[in-house]
């Protein structure tokens, strides 16, 4: 059995060919232990989002292996990958990606309903999570009537509704002013404190304060790693660390 929540080896994802070839992710390896928060930083275009999409099964690698809780996820059929994402991975994106026509509580409960929860159970979980992110008073609001920070907190609640073992976030504070970003950062710090496993891509140096480990990417590769606490899993053996 693999002890890591997520484990990647020799992971590559290239786009285009010939002179237009882009090595978006180029032979990286990563082990994330249960309860660990890993921050991924690096300049624009270095491959952070591509890596996150691979780890969450939104995209497939050209080479390498990915295991989620010990199970290979890099060669699933599209249907199996969709089910895996729904049940086992929570995603938070820079642009929130809420459904504009649904209220906050309906957005949060949607993945639970899709996973087969009863209406009552889904609603109860969604209401509880909205309370958790400080938005119980906004449950009936449409996203358009919420601030950016509130929308992102709804997105975090939605990412948690199926209680996934892994939470992935891509620039979760990228569209927020600094007060709203601080709220979202506090939320991530609380998730870390409760033992969630998180991989967060960010330009925000304050994320460093909430991570156990920071990995720097450049040109598709890992070029630096800073361990900030004692609970880290470590880079994989094929990380290609410069
Ligand atoms: N579908 C695609 N086709 C061609 N090239 C792509 C595609 N997706 C990404 N790329 C390229 O792959 C590289 C990595 O992109 P990626 O989006 O992962 O970077 P990033 O580190 O997330 O950047 P940012 O900080 O700006 O979000 C970039 O050079 C990008 O142009
Ligand atoms: Mg990106």
From TrEMBL:
GO terms for molecular function: ATP binding. Residues 6-241 form the ABC transporter domain. Signal peptide: none annotated. Keywords: ATP-binding, Nucleotide-binding, Transport. It comes from the Bacteria. Belongs to the ABC transporter superfamily. PANTHER family: IMPORT ATP-BINDING PROTEIN (PTHR24220), LIPOPROTEIN-RELEASING SYSTEM ATP-BINDING PROTEIN LOLD (PTHR24220:SF689). This is ABC transporter ATP-binding protein. It comes from Actinomadura sediminis.
């Amino acid at each position: 059995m693999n002890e890591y929540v997520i484990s990647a080896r020799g992971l590559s994802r290239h786009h285009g060919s010939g002179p237009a070839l882009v090595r978006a992710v180029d032979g990286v390896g990563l082990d994330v232990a249960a309860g660990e928060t890993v921050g991924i930083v690096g300049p624009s275009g270095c491959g952070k989002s591509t890596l996150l999409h691979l780890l969450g099964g939104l995209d497939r690698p050209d080479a390498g292996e990915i295991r989620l809780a010990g199970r290979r996820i890099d060669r699933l059929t599209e249907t199996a990958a969709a089910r895996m994402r729904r049940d086992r991975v929570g995603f938070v994106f820079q642009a929130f990606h809420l459904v504009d026509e649904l209220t906050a509580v309906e957005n949060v409960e949607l993945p639970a309903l899709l996973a087969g929860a009863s209406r009552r159970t889904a609603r109860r979980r969604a209401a509880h999570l909205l309370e958790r992110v400080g938005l119980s008073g906004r449950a009936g609001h449409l996203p358009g009537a919420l601030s950016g920070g509130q929308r992102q907190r709804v997105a975090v609640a939605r990412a948690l509704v199926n209680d996934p073992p892994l939470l992935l976030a891509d620039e979760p504070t990228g569209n927020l002013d600094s007060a709203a970003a601080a709220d979202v950062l506090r939320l991530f710090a609380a998730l870390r404190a409760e033992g969630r496993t998180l991989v967060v891509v960010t330009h925000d140096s304050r994320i460093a304060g909430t991570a156990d480990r920071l990995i720097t990417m450049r040109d598709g590769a890992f070029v630096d790693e800073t361990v900030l606490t004692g609970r880290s899993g470590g880079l994989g053996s094929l990380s290609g660390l410069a």
